[in-house]
Records
---
Amino acid sequence: MFRGRAERKVIAAGYDPARLPPGQYLTDKWPVLHAGGIPDTDLAAWDFFVRGEVENPISLSWDELNRLPRTEITEDIHCVTRWSRFDATFEGIHWSALEELVRPKQSAHFVVAHSDQGYTANVPIASLRDSLALLATHADGAPLSPEHGWPLRLIIPGKYFWKSAKWLRGIELTSNDRPGFWERYGYHNEADPFDEERYGF
């Protein structure tokens, strides 16, 4: 029933209903969902690291991170709680700019995203290298709001949005896959919305 209403709205808006994963409904809003509270961030003390299976681990201040080349992407986002939002626009730094600095080792096959308050999310390194992946500082033409992950949020395309970790503080490259916060609570490791990979492996 939800899906039928969503598909009618997609058609009315001129969108291809095939863009909407099964079990999802379309919204123009951006619902706020997260575990725990919103971190109190001081940009003067904030830093961002890349470590693990890299030749050159780094730690960057907020100003240093923002001196890296910037890009803008537009993509559809899908939450495991069943809402989808089409044509969300994000601006920030693509992983390729950081990859040049850290030089991943041949053993780097997976990513653990580390966020404030101990939250983690895991993806294959190929997901981070995707042209639509981003370390986002802005959404829809404005800086991220605190409830949506300010000052930095990971954007991972083609996955349920819990993989796009808010309040990002670092990227760890690993040789083996390590379940993230929600995966340890029973969420699916792959998180493909078109296969409805919500829970379990």
---
Amino acid sequence: MAALLWLIGGIALMAAEILSGDFFLLMVGVGALFGAVADWAFDNTIVAAIVFAVVSIGLVTFARPWLKRRMHGELIHTNADALIGRKAVAVSEVDKEGGRVKLDGDVWSARAFDDKQTISPGVSVTIVEISGATAVVLADTD
């Protein structure tokens, strides 16, 4: 009887995965199916629970990240996130109050990441954050 409950639970979790698309419920559902097989084979709920836990944790830890990368691809940063880490050049003095930097031919308003730092025009900077329409920059130490 318990094996049937494990089986129904596993199928229900795998079906619910359609709504989430995160592959978590699928992994736990497969763990429940393994728990059903263990309960049927050993007729022991404790053994079935241990098999369920080990298989579920193993799948969530190892198979899920691989499956997510395979199905969704690597994370591609867009918009403001894509600018973080990029190099720019100060076109005016940049301090905690503001300034201007040139990034890929476009001039951006900017401010220094370090409140005590003043960046001179012509100095290479790295964008560490985008705050609204302002690039928060740090002078490169070459």
